[in-house]
Amino acid sequence: MYEHSIKVPRHFKIAANIVKKVSTEGGSVKTLLYDNKLRHFRTNVLFALITETIKHAADIDKIFETCSLLTNEPRLDPWLAKVLTSELLFGKKTLPGKSKPEQTILSYKDQFEKYTSDHQADLKTEAVRRPRYVRINTNLLTTSDAIRAFQDEEYRFVRCTSGSYNDYLQQIQGLSEYDFTQDYHVKTVFVFSAGTKLHENELYLENKIILQDKATAMAVHLLAPPPGSVALDMCAAPGMKTTQLAAFMRNEGKIYAVERNERRYQTLCDFVEKTGSKCVETVHRDALEIKRGDYDDVEYILLDPSCSGSGMDLCVHNYIEDTRLAKLTSLQEKFLKHAMNAFPKAKRIVYSTCSLFPEENERVITNVVKTSRSKWRVQDVKELLKGQWNNFGSGMYGSMGTRCMYAKPESDLTTGFFLAVLDRDQKELERQQNGESIVNKVNAKADKFRKVDVENGETSEPEKRKNKKKSNYEPAEEVQTEDQPVIEVSIKKKKKKEKTMEVNDTNEISAINISNGDEPRIEDTEDIPKKKKKKDKHKKMETDISVNESEDTLVPDNDGLEKRKKKKRKHGSDNGQLAEETQVADEKVDHSKKKKKDASNKVENIETDTSEVPKKKKKKHRNKDIEIES
């Protein structure tokens, strides 16, 4: 009867797993679909299969209960059974495989059809079926060429009505199997009858057409960035709206497409490349980590944050827990606040969700706009669409709520969607631009001065002030530039002192030892510190100066020491020692005069080395210790 070796087609298994997670854990179909390793699968096929199954979940449960399917077939996976039943009754109307689960569902086909015919009025989804929306990728194909290509495949083009939006809704509901028309609002979107199969179409395989719902395409339509502008998609993956932005801007300008999740980022990069969206720069980063100054050139922002997905999976998400909803709204408010404050040149923000819960929509808008430090105004979408729309936000949130729009499946024949358009206050935008221009001028002027200083071999003013302070303590250095000779960097006020300062030649006599019959000698004084405290000098003199008991005072009898000052000190002691301190003053002499004085100096063997006179100015008075021995 059944061949157990035949496996169930994999796309049915994947769809069943995602339906199970969405129904039991409350996850988002979009997140689960693109976070899995499904890059080699046609995700649009999976998405349609999953959403149809979830949408008909309540009807399928009643059918299973009436036919006792799960009771009679306990080994059958209930989630896989729901996916297969949805495909049989509401999808392709057939199951292609010959696996046991497929054959089991086919054996109940007559009972399923009997139930649907008896309960036609009770089936929620039979009343309204959404048409197939197709966006033309104008990066690779023009709309006129797309029309001709579909006509070559025996589709009949029906011109969109020139009447009201309600006339358009009636028109697309009456499309036959091979009819298609242009959308009322988004002219790059074509509308086909419900159930039209385009996944195997050559244009789809070449990425020249994108299967994208009209509700999501409205976000780019209302953002309306002109060619050459700079736009930002803060939550870009899988890239439907990002690539639509590129086509809208004719691939002119710049689009930053930001995605945090690594797998979704790879999906985004692949989709951007395949669709020929050359003006898109993908960014693997959390949008909340983008700081002021990173992308200050952004003018238009598209924000589609994570949400409950209740617009797509209404029957599943009706019972979403309050705690999860509170977490989602908190995250959505953070994203919107960041979009308002982190991009100074931003003119317009379009906030959108695939949710029908006001907590994620109107309440987020009103809470953020009222508390934002930047001035933003919620635009009236009804005016932007010239009155040609039917569903708007709730008045419970004031005028801001009513200015937003909803796309509802039962009336707009699209997926459930919410949109709000926020424009920055024009006066604040001008103030932002004027403030930035002033800052830029100041920075440019500073850069100009710095450039001139560098070209002239000079330093900037702050550095000059630092060098002036350092020059009081630092010795002279030799500084050479490419265009200038070596110059000597002098100490403070050196230029004025150079005119009057004479070369100071000093003979440092540190210790003179006089013994019986010996001539005085000069000892090496290099190890003696130049600076000493006064108390230390007196202590050293007391210990170093020794006088013979028989002598009262010894004074060197040298003409070269005529100008030295004499100072006597007597210390009362038992052995009658005397202490004498001689203070030597440094002399300023000219080189020529000094030679004459050296010739007439009576003190022999006193060597004066003036070759190593330091350039640095010495103090006028310096005390020297003289050791006298008897």
Outline the structure in words.
- The protein folds into five domains: 10-127; 129-211, 2-Layer Sandwich (Alpha-Beta Plaits); 213-424, Rossmann fold, CATH 3.40.50; 457-501, no CATH class; 503-630, no CATH class.
- It is built from 26 helices and 17 strands.
- Strand 3 and strand 4 form a beta hairpin.
- Helix 3 packs across helix 6 and helix 6 (78-89) crosses helix 7 (100-107).
- The longest helix has 30 residues, at 426-455.
- The radius of gyration is 47 Å and the shape is globular.
Fold blueprint:
Layout: H1 10-25, H2 29-35, H3 43-55, H4 57-67, H5 69-72, H6 78-89, H7 100-107, H8 109-118, H9 124-127, E1 132-136, H10 143-152, E2 156-158, H11 165-173, E3 179-182, E4 189-192, H12 202-205, E5 209-210, H13 214-223, E6 230-233, H14 240-248, E7 254-259, H15 262-274, E8 280-284, E9 300-303, H16 314-317, H17 322-341, E10 348-353, H18 362-371, E11 376-378, H19 381-384, H20 398-402, E12 405-407, H21 409-412, E13 417-424, H22 426-455, H23 461-471, E14 477-479, E15 487-489, H24 494-498, H25 534-544, E16 565-570, E17 578-583, H26 591-600
Parallel strand pairs: 2-3, 6-7, 6-9, 7-8, 9-10
Antiparallel strand pairs: 1-4, 1-5, 3-4, 10-13, 11-13, 12-13, 14-15, 16-17
